[in-house]
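sry for the spam today, last one i promise. struct tokens for design, 104 residues
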């Protein structure tokens, strides 16, 4: 069974016991989370229950594994022959979670 959840402005396809990195959510490692914004629930190769916009009564329970920062990304701008260049780096704060249950 899998579910499509919405968090941090993005949508994720999650399965039970899956570990994934999402936008930062406040909390300590080991604390429990519940995602109420479930857009769809289904089984591989079978029917898919799509909400309008959310599936009624569906919840996904997860546990925070760790808080960490993603890899450094470089944004480099340059205009040729003008001597203009700007370089700036960015590291996103992320949360690693483990999906413990999908309740449809």
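last one done:
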């Amino acid at each position: 069974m899998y579910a499509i959840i919405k968090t941090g402005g993005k949508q994720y396809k999650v399965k039970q016991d899956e570990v994934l990195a999402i936008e930062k959510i406040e909390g300590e490692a080991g604390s429990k989370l519940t995602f109420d914004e479930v857009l769809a629930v289904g089984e591989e190769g079978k029917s898919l229950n799509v909400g309008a916009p959310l599936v009624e009564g569906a919840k996904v329970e997860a546990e925070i594994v760790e808080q960490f920062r993603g890899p450094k990304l470089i944004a480099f701008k340059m205009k040729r022959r003008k001597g203009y260049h700007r370089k700036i780096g960015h590291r996103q704060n992320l949360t690693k979670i483990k999906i413990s249950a999908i309740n449809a």
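Strands lie at 2-7, 10-15, 19-23, 32-35, 38-42, 48-50, 59-69, 73-79, 84-90, 93-103. ok im logging off now
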